[in-house]
Amino acid sequence: MLKVLLLSATLFALPLAMAEEPQAVHASAQAGMSININTASAEELAQQLKGVGLSKAKAIVAYREQHGPFTEVAELTEVKGIGQRTLELNEDTLQL
Questions:
Q1: Beta partners for 36?
Q2: What is the DSSP string of 47-69?
Q3: Hey, what's the signal peptide range on this chain (predicted)?
Q4: pLDDT tens-digit profile of 46-90?
């Protein structure tokens, strides 16, 4: 009986032990990753910035196209839907 239990446990645990760890969903979750708010597409912004979905990301790109490149990161708060909290969440990710 003990042999059957050990064999069952081994057969059950083997696939779990052999499985690869899942990759990170957001590139910004990896240390040292940053995104240039003057060159990134709306899709890239939405994927890499916390609290920014595709709608807000499109607003960032539209603002950039209308007003020219951002001269400082804090200028993002001029975009509708982007506030100080969003900047704080992404301060280590944003670059010009």
A1: 95
A2: HHSTT--HHHHHHHHHHHHHH-S
A3: 1-19
A4: 999 999 999 999 999 999 999 999 999 999 999 999 999 999 999
Containing H/E element for 95?
strand 94-95
**In the block, residue with structure tokens 């499985």:** 19
Number of domains in the chain: 1
Chain centroid, CA 89 distance in Å? 11
**Residue 57, in any domain of the structure:** yes
- In this predicted structure, what is the pLDDT of residue 5? 58
Look at residue 93 and tell me if it is in a domain.
Answer: yes
pTM of this structure: 0.66
The answer as to whether 86 is a domain residue is yes
* Inter-residue contact 29 to 92 (CB < 8 Å): no
